[in-house]
Amino acid sequence: MSLELASILVLVALFVIATFVSVHMGALALMATFLFGTFVLGEDADTLLTGFPADLFLILVGVTYLFALAKDNGTVDWLVHVLVKAVGGRIALIPWVFFVVTALLSGFGSVVPAAIAIIAPIGMGFARRYDIRPLLMGLMIINGATAGGFSPLSIFGTITNQVVERNDLPGSPVLLFLASFVFNFILGLICFFLFGGRDLLGKRDLGHGLEDTRRTDAGADAEADGEADGSGGSGTQPEVPRNDPQRRAARRSVQTTMVKDDDIGAPVTTLDRNRIVTLIGLIVLAVMVVPPLNQDVGFTAICIAVIISFFSPKVSKGAVSKIAWPTVLLICGIVTYVELMERLGTIDWLGNLVAGMGAPLFAAVLICFIGAVVSAFASTTGILGALIPLAVPFLLTGSVGEIGLIIALAISSSVVDSSPFSTSGALVVANSPEEQRDQVFKQLMRWGFSMVLIAPIVTWLIFVVPGWG
User: Fold this and answer.
1) Taking CA 440 as the corner, what is the angle to CA 133 and CA 317, rounded to the nearest 5 degrees?
2) What is the pTM of this model?
3) What's the CA gap between 258 and 100, in Å, rounded?
4) Cα(129)–Cα(257) distance, rounded to whole angstroms?
């Protein structure tokens, strides 16, 4: 058995063991990295640690620490209040607002994980307050960031177009961007209706909490009868304004959803000193991580969090404990092992096997599958930079359309970022409500792996089989 195949079997064993035995998958992956790397590959500890994703560790710790502070001092709640007013209180529009915002951030140059790192904590604040499923909100944010990720100004788009240009392949930056945006928009529609979006239709927050404006026939008829005789539905109660809290309380029987009393609390509608400082910090974070500054997201978030702590030391005491440490261990452990596989050459080995096949269309779909599988665990940026060059000899034969395969490979390698083992999915898990974090992890794992199976086939059928390019 080759070492490359053995490393793949070890990865499969990690998932099987963690599924049926109560052991943390991240710790198990670190153990596998140590044992396989030391006793099979002969690597020392320093070499093994080169695969530890320090950048991802800093992003997860820094962003969750910063937004734990923002949540504790009321800044997130204030942002929720402002954005709900901006959409007229229509709850169903909120996930789409976050889709558009993250698409704009990534489309104008922000790295996709950076855009998600900024938006995901705010989006999860909305999800908690308005009973939106965290899975729906997280996927809308990821799909939005990926939709804008292949614009000619973005990192994904720039890397892909540069690799294509360096290898003298035909390309179409505009077509790549439009194809990715439409594909992710359709995914957003599917996620919206599949994961609870329909339940949000008709729900509004007019300033007195969540209210369902869809009325039952009986409730509507009863109110109509009350209005007809001028009694407001009761011969003893006077008519009150429609949005008055007393009227809402009287109509609770015809509302299907109400925010729990302990979740509503006193709405945060004003800015104090700490919230202003935090808000300035969030704006600085958004500016620092996009071109032309391009500062590291993790370091920048930690620096801002430390500065905020100086202004509100009492609030900041409990923020460190709210960092998603189990998620950090899980993601960093898996990625460390995948980096060992890359050093071993497992990815190149798979790519060369595919490139040497004689059936062009079958080889094309296999390349898309390799991109999807590897990207679900590792850097999409790295995969785009590695697989396209590996496919160059195959593409130059003219057996398949070059532009079509490049688009299919780009989309297949990016939509799987919803996997919790990818940076984007990990950020969503880390910012989910603590009591739902395990559930969100499992849901994203199912969705991410379904994308691994579905996206390569769909993009192959749409872009490769017709012979685009």
Assistant:
1) 95
2) 0.69
3) 27
4) 12
